[in-house]
From TrEMBL:
Pfam families: PTR2 (PF00854)
Descriptive protein name: PTR2-domain-containing protein
Principal subcellular localisation of the protein: membrane
Database matches in InterPro entries: MFS_trans_sf (IPR036259), POT_fam (IPR000109)
Keyword Transmembrane helix: yes
UniProt record similarity statement: Belongs to the major facilitator superfamily. Proton-dependent oligopeptide transporter (POT/PTR) (TC 2.A.17) family.
Subcellular location: Membrane
Transmembrane segments: 160-181, 187-205, 250-268, 274-295, 372-389, 409-425, 446-468, 488-512, 524-547, 553-574
Keywords for this protein: Membrane, Transmembrane, Transmembrane helix, Transport
Region of interest called Disordered, as start-end residue ranges on this chain: 24-48
Length: 609
């Protein structure tokens, strides 16, 4: 079917005049402009597409998820086991002193009643290095996404990422060898170099694996279809709804890997040593390239699009030309102008630049992608509470009664909650909300994520207050040898709330990046999503001076206030965009060519190396 026919279908299926987004028209035609042909509603294999009335009235259901999606999910599960199993012990490795007693004190293992440690650099140093690791791991998706979309394709970039990350894993293992730990400067040098390579590989991997998994479904089910149930009910098989389920299950596999990795490696650290905590994840990590290569002929893969970033940047610059002013109000009004994208569509230009080798539909895709990036600008605030989970909350746990539980195992309540509640949300909560007639759109979910993240920090602040109140050392609780009469499990609500915030905002962010990006820029836009995590880690460095006694209550309280204000600002800014979600998802794929001779690339290929 032609792109023009696709546009007719999209606009008719959505119905009504297109609403404005921040005074900008997203779609310009109305139903009265459309002359439907009967062929538009019948696919090449006899499949039936819904009419506008059916889109508005029929129940929407999930489609069948291909087995290849679960294979790719297992690859990600192994990678997450390796990542979280390794990073779970970073805080103790950096912060705590090498124990003098225990089963293997020279390797950092202190046993049941001791505190595992190695470099003894203190809480501020551990917070700073852990935040750097998070920052670097989430900066590199931007680079990996660019390489995948422009040069290598997702499959090749993922395999390059695995090689780089493996080298990083090996250097981190070297830093934890008992003989190396005895030379703290050498251990630290190997550890930091390992972090850089480790984070590079992680970043290249993250921005490509999630688009690859969703493309396995979309390639076979690009449009809503009519299906008749055994009961005789006619329903719509909704690709958007199904991709949302794909990401829920993908995220669940992530947390299965994270939970197993974190718990097992923490006990390996405590009873054997850090070298084992770093070695076992590396061994499992080698399963990733095996699964990728064995199944390589079965993956649906999009080829790289050459100069796509350059063209998108030039298009944006052309759309904004003449709209900047020293007067910020005038600039803001110009940027909101309804025609800024329409005037740069090829069909509206009397003289096209030589680089404009795409059609009007691709301009609409780019516009939609920039809107997604605007949404992601608010995510650094959301990630601030999340970042406390593997840094300051781990240190907080060490100041309470552990009763033999390692302090860095408690935050596994987070992936444990996700594993339990993702199916609950998928099978019960989200369907129940839909039956109530409430359209729980992606942006509403993200806003709910802000609320849960804020509440988690309120809980953390309250816990810290009681630690200071009950500790024999008062506001010096972190250095006190006698913990207060306060069980570490009082942290449970904080970790559960962070998990809920991930279900609402983190999973939805991946889905939003995939569905809103131009189809040949999905790795890059996913990289932009993950970059917000890196930016958040950079912002979190400003809070490091508060990450010590007696200021920890202020740390959590400040982050809670910032998150609350951020959630309010997010919804105020995007409440109108929320109404456009279905229409934005239904935009057709544009025609795009690249290279010196502008050779046309097809939408998918079976190989892209």
């Amino acid at each position: 079917m032609s792109s023009g026919a696709n546009m007719d279908f999209v606009e008719a299926a959505q119905g009504g005049a297109a609403k404005e987004l921040n005074e900008e028209k997203i779609l310009s035609k109305t139903d009265s402009d459309i002359d439907h042909k009967s062929d538009d509603l019948i696919g090449p294999n006899g499949e039936q597409y819904p009419t506008a009335e059916e889109m508005a009235t029929l129940r929407r259901v999930y489609g069948k998820i291909n087995w290849m999606i679960y294979i790719i999910g297992i690859v990600e599960m192994c990678e997450r086991f390796a990542y979280y199993g390794t990073t779970a012990v970073f805080v103790n490795f950096i912060q705590q002193d090498l124990p003098t007693e225990g089963p293997f004190p020279e390797a950092g293992a202190a046993g049941t009643d001791g505190q595992a440690g190695a470099l003894g650099m203190g809480q501020r140093a551990s917070t700073g290095l852990v935040q750097f690791n998070q920052f670097w791991s989430y900066v590199m998706p931007m680079v990996g996404g660019w390489l995948a979309d422009e040069y290598w394709g997702r499959f090749k970039t993922i395999n390059v990422a695995i090689v780089i990350a493996t080298v990083g894993h090996i250097l981190i293992i070297i830093a934890a060898i008992p003989a190396v730990i005895q030379n703290p400067h050498g251990a630290l040098a190997s550890f930091i170099l390992g972090l850089i390579l480790f984070g590079t590989g992680v970043g290249f991997f993250k921005c490509n694996i999630s688009p690859l998994i969703a493309e396995q479904y979309e390639a076979e089910h690009p449009r809503p279809l009519i299906r008749t149930e055994p009961s005789g009910e006619r329903v719509i098989v909704d690709p958007g709804l199904t991709i949302s389920r794909v990401y829920l299950r993908y995220y669940q596999l992530i947390n299965v890997g994270a939970l197993i990795g974190q718990i097992s490696m923490v006990y390996a650290e405590k009873y054997v040593g850090f070298w084992l905590s770093f070695t076992l994840p590396t061994i499992l990590f080698v399963l990733c390239p095996i699964l990728m290569l064995v199944c390589r002929k079965h993956y649906v893969r999009r080829p790289p699009s050459g100069d796509v970033l350059v063209k998108a940047s030039r298009l944006y610059g052309l759309a904004m030309k003449g709209r900047w002013s020293l007067n910020p109000v005038k600039t803001w009004n110009n940027l909101k102008a309804a025609d800024k994208w329409d005037v740069v569509k090829p069909s509206n230009m009397s003289t096209k630049p030589s680089w404009m080798t795409f059609d009007d539909a691709w301009v609409d895709e780019v516009r939609r992608g920039f809107k997604a990036c605007y949404v992601f600008l608010w995510y650094p605030i959301f990630w601030l509470p999340y970042g406390q989970m593997t840094s300051n909350l781990v240190s907080q746990a060490a100041t309470m009664k552990l009763n033999g539980v390692p302090n860095d195992v408690v935050h596994n309540l987070n992936p444990f909650t996700l594993i339990i509640f993702i199916p609950v949300f998928d099978k019960f909560i989200y369907p129940a909300i839909a039956r109530m007639g409430f359209h729980f759109t992606p942006l509403k979910k993200v806003n709910a994520g802000f609320v849960c993240a804020c509440l988690s920090m309120i809980v953390a602040a309250a816990i810290q207050h009681f630690i200071y109140e009950k500790s024999p050392c008062g506001t010096s609780a972190s250095s006190c040898e006698t913990p207060p009469e306060l069980s570490v499990w009082v942290q449970t609500p904080a970790y559960v709330l962070i998990a809920f915030s991930e279900i609402f905002a983190s999973i939805t962010g991946l889905e939003y990046a995939y569905t809103k990006a131009p189809k040949n820029m999905r790795s890059l836009v996913t990289g932009v999503f993950w970059f917000t995590h890196a930016f958040s880690s950079a912002v979190a460095q400003a809070f490091v001076p508060l990450a010590d006694d007696p200021l920890l209550v202020w740390l959590y309280t400040t982050i809670a206030i910032i998150t609350f204000v951020g959630g309010m600002g997010f919804w105020w800014n995007f409440r109108s965009l929320d109404e456009q979600d279905d229409k934005l998802n239904a935009l057709p794929e544009g025609e795009y060519t690249f290279g010196k001779d502008a050779a046309k690339r097809g939408p998918v290929e079976s190989s892209e190396v």
